[in-house]
Amino acid sequence: MARATINVDNHTYEGTDAQRTLHNLGELWAHHVHGRTIAPGVIMRCADELVTLVAPLADDDSPDLAPRERLSHLGELAAKRIDDVNPLQLERALREMWTPLAALASAANDATTSVGGVVGGLFVSGGGVPKTPVDSVEIGYRGVVGDRQASRQHHGRPWQALCLWSAEVVAGLAAAGHPIRPGSAGENISLRGVEWSLMRPGTQLRLGDVHIALTAYASPCYKNAQWFSDADYDRMSHLRGDESRLYARVDKPGRVSVGDRLRTLA
Q: Quick one: how far is CA 208 from the chain centroid?
């Protein structure tokens, strides 16, 4: 398993971060097309751009597969042989893979043009859930300064620097009788006054001084079963509706405070 640190511009991939990113390529693709209407030509163009980046790392290709299956195949092969790949090609793939993924979002017929809302809450912890509310945080390229994950097996990649969720979604769950509150499920940032169904991977946002890009839906974790009266934490999955948390990459660090306004970046 690869342990070398890889610097990609301002983002640092430590330990197995690069390997896990490649392994998740098909899933990241699926998250960016989920619930969107995108012209077939755009889908094929974006898939081909990703294949161009990853096929040299995988030393293989299966062009007859559908885009998600093809990218999953290439990503998994590249992850398995990551210690043997060309470092410059790997760095390029990790840097440029987000461009065609973001293009899927911007080309969607229902692409988000603007959103409103404010930062309703900020949360940190030394590891694990729930997180503790604070009034203001400093956000760097690795996420909220002073915040940590209990385990980095499925967390902590540069594209998972922040976890965001809707204050209204949490309030609705609490009103339904679930013992949950903002910060319970590990979100760093709770947004209020946002139409959550519009928050999808590929969307770029400004929070206070900070610029971020939504990168993926956050997969539900069994550790969050305690926040649901029936222990059905899968209700947070994007496959079940519009109540999923979202991960984000930090493109411009800065300070965020409760009450800061949310804006969509062009």
A: 19
Contact 206, 190 (CB under 8 A): no
Q: Tokens standing for 26?
A: 């098909």
Hey, what amino acid is at 146? G
Q: What is the spatial distance between Cα 245 and Cα 233, in angstroms, rounded to a whole number?
A: 12
pLDDT digits (tens, 9 = 90+) for 53-93: 999 999 989 999 999 999 999 999 999 999 999 999 999 99
Return phi, psi of residue 129, to 5°: -120, 155
Total-model pTM: 0.93
Q: Which two three-digit tokens encode residue 71?
A: 């990218």
Q: DSSP class of residue 220?
A: P
CATH topology of domain 118-264: M1 Pyruvate Kinase; Domain 3 (2.40.33)
The span from the CA of 95 to the CA of 53, in Å, is: 10
Domains of the chain by residue range: 6-107, 118-264
Amino acid at 261: R
Return the structure tokens found at 20.
């896990």
Report the alpha-carbon angle 75-79-39, nearest 5: 15
